[in-house]
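We close this part of the discussion by returning to an individual protein. The encoding preserves chain order, so positions in sequence and tokens coincide. The sequence in question and its structure tokens are set out directly beneath this paragraph:

===
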Amino acid sequence: MNSPPAKKNAAALTSIFISALLAGFSFAGTAPQTEQVVEVKPLLSRDGVRPGELIKAAIILTVQPGYHINNNAPNDEFLFATTLTFDDNPNLEVVETYYPAGHRGRFAYSQTELIVYEGEAVLGAVLKAKAGIPAGPLKLKATLSYQACDNTSCMPPKDLGFEITVPVVAAGKSSQDLHPEVFSKIPFKTPSK
């Protein structure tokens, strides 16, 4: 038996699909439904984080050629926003999530210009290792939610689960910076320390 929130969510999704179909969307898509149009590769800014410190994560999205996904703030209420969500973790806190702006494009299924990610897009997160946690690897589970479209149609929204392994080091141990060429381009608002 569905709970009231589940019924409300189902009704909202049904409404979105009906509205999208009326607006001329097709959810058939040309890619097989089992195929992932987007690949995710997480990177960390350092090779370890001490308890109580911050560490940055970059989530590199690679969208297959011929496809695009909406950015995090699409300019049409019926479009499905790309979002990152993180499972609760007793040892890690997500302090900030970053989404790039995306770029404008015109596609046959829309009368207006859309803001999308194509090719490669780099999302980000700032994580805080909680004070007093022991050294060792921590697994942070995350989900990328997106809707892939080609020039003429859109596939149903999809969730892609992945993990970020965060190495926690002892309080007195140092760590080395990693991937400065990636992290120097992400304008995080949270200070490094």
Q: What stands out?
A: The first strand starts at residue 38 and ends at 44. Confidence is low (pLDDT under 50) at residues 1-34. The chain is about 10% helix and 35% strand. The two ends are 48 Å apart (CA to CA).
